[in-house]
Amino acid sequence: MSDTQSNPKQFSITYPPGLYRVRFDISAESFAAITAGQGLALFHLRGAEIHSKLAFIHSLAQAAQFPDYAQANWDALEECLRDLKWCPAAGYVIFYQGVHPFQAAAPEDYATAIDILAAAVEFWQNADRPLYVFLE
């Protein structure tokens, strides 16, 4: 995981696909416009609402519009992150703003979530479609 900081006036996603710890000086709306302009699907998570495993899974499922059959467990999350056929795009971006509440409230579950996100990045690299995960 890399640390980075960016100026929103000059920002575009030119990083290699990966999992990044970031400090962006950019609004979620501006970030959405940037990703859309690059043909990337954006899944935005608001960390203030995430304090547990179930809240994390539910938030990501809602942001990525997972199918109704997706269940609230790690295996289903991992499976859905490797599928995404309902969301065709040139690539995918998970922008998780405010990771601290989940990280502080449930550190073991947070670590599992990060492992799953990292595995999804690797999966999509092998499928020649980028997945970027930005943790702010």
3D architecture notes:
This protein is α/β, with parallel strands linked by helices. 40% of the residues lie in helices and 23% in strands. It has helices at residues 28-37, 53-63, 74-81, 100-105, 107-126, and strands at 2-6, 18-24, 40-46, 91-97, 131-135. It has a 5-stranded parallel β-sheet, with helices on both faces. Helix 3 (74-81) packs parallel to helix 5 (107-126). The relative contact order is 0.21. Mean pLDDT is 88; it is low at 2-10.
Name some characteristics of this structure:
single chain; 136 residues; alpha/beta; 5-stranded parallel beta sheet; 5 helices; 5 strands; 23% strand
Topology readout:
Blueprint lengths: L1 E5 L11 E7 L3 H10 L2 E7 L6 H11 L10 H8 L9 E7 L2 H6 L1 H20 L4 E5 L1
At a glance:
By secondary structure, this protein is α/β, with parallel strands linked by helices. It is built from 5 helices and 5 strands; from the N terminus they run ββαβααβααβ. The relative contact order is 0.21.
